[in-house]
Structures are given as structure tokens and as C-alpha cells.
Amino acid sequence: xxxxxxxxxxxxxxxxxxxxxxxxxxxxxxxxxxxxxxxxxxxxxxxxxxxxxxxxxxxxxxxxxxxxxxxxxxxxxxxxxxxxxxxxxxxxxxxxxxxxxxxxxxxxxxxxxxxxxxxxxxxxxxxxxxxxxxxxxxxxxxxxxxxxxxxxxxxxxxxxxxxxxxxxxxxxxxxxxxxxxxxxxxxxxxxxxxxx
Length: 196
Hints:
By secondary structure, the chain is an alpha+beta fold. The protein has helices at 3-9, 23-34, 53-60, 101-116, 129-136, 183-186, and strands spanning 16-17, 45-50, 85-92, 120-124, 142-153, 156-161, 169-172, 175-180. β7 (169-172) and β8 (175-180) form a beta hairpin.
């Protein structure tokens, strides 16, 4: 799979199916993240790999995988929905404002690497930071920025043209649809407002 294919095919997955993620692959994801661009090459990120079954189970109640979903689509409680592992993304303040941008580049590297090997991911910022900090023993000098859930895909997700809403939804059970702005709505050529 080439990079452009991976970018266009990768989608966030919120429902997973049972199956272990090898620790070596989690290490590979952290390695891909570490090699992302870094402002002034300060490299302020660290990663906690969570693959112990009890720790993964504890983590599940501390993260929110589908804030937009309502009614029968709400995710939670079903063991078939749970990821097999998590990566906690930690940030150490460098005093350089641009350093926080490193997080996006590092996480995107992980998401694409996982997708390229058939694993599903969900980048999660809606997390209970203090309980997770205690559970993982994160030192005070680090901020817990986000979590990445990793596992085997338990649903299909694909983009659809956005109309009135950005809210993702299930078209059918396990068929997640994610509204995205049309390419023609986001491209301007040479000057803003000049369309292709």
C-alpha cells in the first residue's frame, strides 16, 4: 500500500474485534511516531504502550470512543467493541510554542502505520487525564495529551459528502459514515475564492 492509498483509505474505527496486538508492533508504532517531524528537533514526546489485559480493561472506562453517537449506536460495555491496546501520547513542555504541533505529526504516523498493517485505530482526546496519569504512573513533568486505541477492526468506516452536519453516524449496524467536506469546497487556486 503506498502512502497516498493509506491516507485515503484510513478511517477512525471505534468498534474493535477480539485479537491481540503484538507488543513488537506497538513498539513499531512508537518508532514511527518518534521519527515524525519535530519543531526545532526538540523531540518532546514520549509514549506509554498499554497491552496488559487488566490495564487495557481499566483504560476502557477512562476514554470516550464515540461522543457523537446516540441511542442504539452508543459504544460501550460490549467486549467485542474494545480495543486490544492503547498508546498514551505524552508531551514535555519545551517552552517553544510550535512543539505541541509535534503531537499531530507523531499520531498521524502511528495511525497510518497501523492501517498499513491491517490494524484499526482511534485517536482519542476525550479522556480522563488524572485517573489515567495515576494508572500509568506518568511523572508530573509530562502532560498526557491523548490516547490512541489499537486493535483489529470490528466495523467498516468510510467518508461521505458532508451536507448540513459534521456528525458521524451508522448507516447500518457496523457501517460507520463520516461526513467530509468536498474537495471542491476546500481548494482555492492562487487566490482565495478562485476555484478549480
